[in-house]
Design a protein that fits this description.
The protein has helices at 10-22, 51-64, 67-78, 84-97, 109-131, 153-163, 201-204, 211-224, 233-239; strands spanning 2-6, 28-32, 43-46, 135-136, 142-146, 169-173, 178-182, 187-191. With 258 residues, the protein is of the alpha/beta class.
């Protein structure tokens, strides 16, 4: 068994795929940055991300898949589903070994699982576009904290860049410890130590003095548009799962309320 140790990026994984074919490697597993202790007697091979190698794999796949199927690979990778690298590699093997497009062959687990993983990421990306709640700091930076099930920041950055083009903003993924920052011109990736709970008093201290006022306005608006007689808790939770509530302004109680 060979452990391919890569940097966790999509380009890194594609480089690893290229090297599997280049060196005719067999019985491989993928590991991100840290060696898996469950495979004590396996051989370790370090993969250095190489964009040229990654692009050769992408070019080969693009010629054999539809535009939707090609994009699904990236979406599936970002799902972080268990053993997704191995699932994707088996899918890639099937793509390169078949003389025809294999996207519709749902009898194969690798095809079905890639489709499921891509759907999961797409659904989570759509939710984050609706569930991001910005707060304003004293230095006029709008920030939001999210904890999505999938790594969706690369998928939502263009949406927020277009929508909030005239504001500086930061969206921070507390689960993955990185964020995307927009400086009125470009979006860049940032890594920092940041509190994961936006309702904490320590975090509230950096907010603009009017932020609490506007948060309460939003809470009151949210409360006013809810018709008690038509309340459907089951449906509400289906569209706004509880795991997101701690980062939604309308679900966070007023810290100063007695």
């Amino acid at each position: 068994m060979i452990q391919l140790l890569y940097d966790g990026s999509y380009e890194g994984w594609l480089t690893a795929v290229f090297e599997i074919y280049e060196y005719k490697l067999k019985d491989v597993v993928f590991a991100k940055e840290e060696i898996s202790n469950t495979l004590l007697f396996s051989e370790i091979q370090l993969v250095i991300t190489d964009n040229a190698k990654a692009n050769r794999v992408l070019n080969g796949l693009e010629q054999r898949l539809s535009h939707h199927g090609f994009n699904n690979l990236y979406f599936a990778f970002l799902s972080e589903m268990g053993q997704i690298e191995e699932i994707l590699f088996r899918f890639v093997e099937y793509v390169f070994s078949s003389p025809m497009n294999i996207e519709g062959d749902l009898s194969r687990n690798e095809v079905l699982n890639v489709k499921k993983a891509a759907h999961l990421t797409g659904k989570e990306s759509h939710r984050m576009k609706a569930f991001v709640r910005f707060k304003l700091t004293k230095d006029n930076l709008y920030y939001a904290i999210i904890e999505p099930d999938c790594d969706v920041l690369p998928l939502i950055e263009q949406h927020f860049k277009n929508r909030y083009a005239d504001q500086r903003w930061l969206i921070y993924d507390a689960k993955r410890k990185y964020g995307i920052y927009y400086d009125l011109e470009n979006v860049s990736t940032v890594e920092m130590q940041f509190e994961s709970n936006p309702s904490s008093r320590s975090l509230a201290e950096i907010n603009d003095e009017n932020e609490e006022f506007f948060e309460n306005l939003w809470r009151n608006y949210f409360k006013s548009v809810n018709i008690e007689s038509r309340k459907n808790t089951k449906l509400h939770i289906k569209h706004m799962p509880k795991r997101y509530w701690k980062n939604l302004t309308e679900k966070i109680p007023n810290l100063n309320k007695r």
